[in-house]
């Protein structure tokens, strides 16, 4: 399988809406408004993109065959 983070181009199109982020955070008793949710999402996308560009730090999914 390919790495989850090798192709960081897909992070350009942000697929998590601010309303969805607010709902996810609310499930964990974290209350944020739309501006705060946007800031959090921008930060997380930036971290994901930077992590994908870090040399030697790729998360590779390996197949596991159980006995």
Secondary structure layout:
Layout: H1 18-27, H2 34-53
Helix pairs in contact: 1-2
Q: How would you characterize this protein structure?
A:
This protein has helices at 18-27, 34-53. The chain is mainly α and 67 residues long. The chain has a domain at 8-53. Mean pLDDT is 77; it is low at 1-5.
Summarize, please.
It is extended, with a radius of gyration of 15 Å. The chain has helices at residues 18-27, 34-53.
The proportion of residues in beta strands is: under 5%
| Extended strand count | 0
Helix coverage percent of residues?
A: 40-55%
Let me know the largest β-sheet. Answer: none
Features:
mainly alpha; 2 helices; 45% helix; 67 residues
